[in-house]
Write a structure and sequence with these properties.
By secondary structure, the chain is of the alpha+beta class. It has four helices and six strands, in the order ααββαβββαβ. The chain has a two-stranded antiparallel ribbon with strand order 1-2. A two-stranded antiparallel sheet has the order 3-4. Strand 1 and strand 2 form a beta hairpin. The two termini are about 25 Å apart.
Amino acid sequence: MDRFKQVNDTLGHQAGDLLLKHVAEVFRKELTENAFISRIGGDEFILLLPLTEHSKKDLQALAQNLIEKINVPIMLKGKLTQIGCSIGISIFPDNEFNDFHTLISYADQALYASKEAGKNRVTFYSKFD
């Protein structure tokens, strides 16, 4: 989530908790029941999807949809609040690895590339980037 720290700092941790619940609900509504969703820390979530159900083009469209839904302003503690969402995607078996930790590491690298490119973006991990 982009600007999550700003919400916590200006509106308090209770507002931040409400925001986390809101984002989790957006994910729950927008993803298939075969998706695994978990918050892995602070403002980061992990989504695992079976690739057999999603082509790279489908994943791009799904990620853009999630960004759009999360960008919709919501009321928190009486204030209209808007955050953003940056997404990093790593695909197994596309990236020459065979363990979960590497999959997550590559997704994390792609996430930070999205944030560095201006946030509210989707980046696929590539060993050539």
